[in-house]
Write a structure and sequence with these properties.
The chain is α+β, with helices and mostly antiparallel strands. The radius of gyration is 15 Å and the shape is elongated. Strand 1 and strand 2 form a beta hairpin. 46% of the residues lie in helices and 17% in strands. The protein binds FE2/S2 (inorganic) cluster (2 copies). It is found in: Mitochondrion matrix.
């Protein structure tokens, strides 16, 4: 491990030993949850992020009910985004993940799940922050 960009280079290892499998408390105000499905195959991915007050991702977990490539994509994604500002994580493309894992064309949609799940998780945190701000304004 290391800084934000030094995720694991041994891609096979993401198939054999997926990282960051698990769940974060989805009701926590600093946790964003992205739950997405692939219409092509019915596989489902849940990816969660915890952000600090500056919007940097400090922790990420996933649970994927899907093929090996989807699991490897989510494992890699959780490693890639740790330490990143969430806006930057939301710009990660499935191409980046697919290239890293050397996915064949028929497996591209598996990495698309990871891109979509990151975006959905970031959106969830942003929405929670808006609601929080709104409720504070109302209390004031
Ligand atoms: Fe191997 Fe982070 S570079 S676990
Ligand atoms: Fe559908 Fe991989 S997510 S085959």
């Amino acid at each position: 491990a290391g800084g934000a960009r030094t995720y694991h280079k041994n891609v096979l290892d993401h198939y054999e030993n997926p990282r960051n499998v698990g769940s974060l408390d989805r009701n926590s105000p600093d946790v964003g949850t992205g739950l997405v499905g692939a219409p092509a195959c019915g596989d489902v991915m849940k990816l969660q992020i915890r952000v600090d007050e500056n919007g940097n991702i400090v922790e990420s977990k996933f649970k994927t009910f899907g093929c090996g490539s989807a699991i490897a994509s989510s494992s890699l994604a959780t490693e890639m985004i740790r330490g990143m500002p969430m806006e930057e994580a939301a710009r990660i493309k499935n191409k980046d993940i697919a290239a890293e894992l050397k996915l064949p064309p028929v497996k591209l949609h598996c990495s698309m799940l990871a891109e979509d799940a990151i975006k959905a998780a970031v959106k969830d945190v942003l929405k929670k922050r808006e609601l929080h701000k709104a409720s504070q304004t109302m209390e004031a």
